[in-house]
Design a protein that fits this description.
Number of strands: 7
Structural class: alpha/beta
Order of helices and strands: EHEHHEEHHEHEHHEH
Shape: globular
CATH superfamily: P-loop containing nucleotide triphosphate hydrolases
Number of domains: 1
Number of helices: 9
Low-confidence stretches: none
CATH class: Alpha Beta
Radius of gyration: 17 Å
Strand content: 15-25%
């Protein structure tokens, strides 16, 4: 593992831009812990659906989130969590959760609590954290910022492949429409909208393999650290 001081690498971008794959690969190469910030929002969305809370009711959503106990732990190089002692696992990747998560993530009280939890994960050590506001809100002072993007059609194809693997019944066109709706919500919400962080390196991964994007991230981080 690289030496102190504590290092946080921020990788932001829209859905299916390759953030998760790249962040995991970079964390593994650097010897850091991987954090998927979006999994927290998806987990809380899953919790709302499980408790029959209307995700379009911000007051009800905030109330549920504020009384939900989150516990964090490290497993296989990644920081994971439980909600009231339960691990939702792959359920947070369902099509329904994907459709509703932007509503939950737009609630200011929810974002404030999640940001606090994300910042607290530094207690586990050096991090590679991916999300939508890591370089702008969660860790705006980190010098290691990246913004991944890809053509909407390519992103839809990637996400569709994920759903096919989980036996979800959908099409590329439906996934594309869903991604475009989420992009609009994420980019126009009042609280911490999706945007490129100041100083972030922008990487268009449309025609790139994940390993090549990982190499860019790891190389830039190592170079920055070696220069002090």
């Amino acid at each position: 593992m690289l030496s102190s001081p504590l290092i946080t690498v921020a990788i932001d971008g829209p859905s299916a831009s390759g953030k998760s794959t790249v962040a995991r690969g970079a964390a593994r190469a650097l010897g850091f812990h991987y954090v998927d910030s979006g999994s927290l929002y998806r987990g809380l969305t899953w919790k709302c659906l499980r408790e029959s809370v209307n995700t379009e009711d911000p007051v009800a959503v905030a109330e549920l989130v504020n009384r939900t106990k989150l516990d964090f732990f490290v497993e296989e190089g990644a920081i994971r969590f439980t909600l009231d002692g339960e691990d939702p696992g792959a359920q947070i990747r369902s099509m329904l959760v994907q459709e509703r998560v932007s509503d939950v993530a737009a609630v200011p009280d929810v974002r404030a609590r999640v940001v606090q939890h994300l910042r607290d994960t530094t207690r586990f050590g050096n991090l590679v954290m991916e999300g939508r506001d890591i370089g702008t809100v969660v860790f705006p002072d980190t010098p290691h910022k990246f913004y991944l993007d890809a053509d909407p059609e390519e992103r839809a194809r990637r996400r569709h492949q994920e759903f096919v693997k989980s036996a979800a019944d959908t099409t590329v066109d439906k996934v594309l429409a869903s991604l475009q709706r989420r992009d609009r919500k994420d980019s126009t919400r009042k609280t911490a909208p999706l945007q490129i962080a100041l100083g972030a390196r922008i990487i268009d991964s449309t025609a790139m393999q994940a390993k090549d994007v990982v190499e860019i991230v790891v190389s830039q981080v190592r170079d920055a650290i070696s220069k002090g």
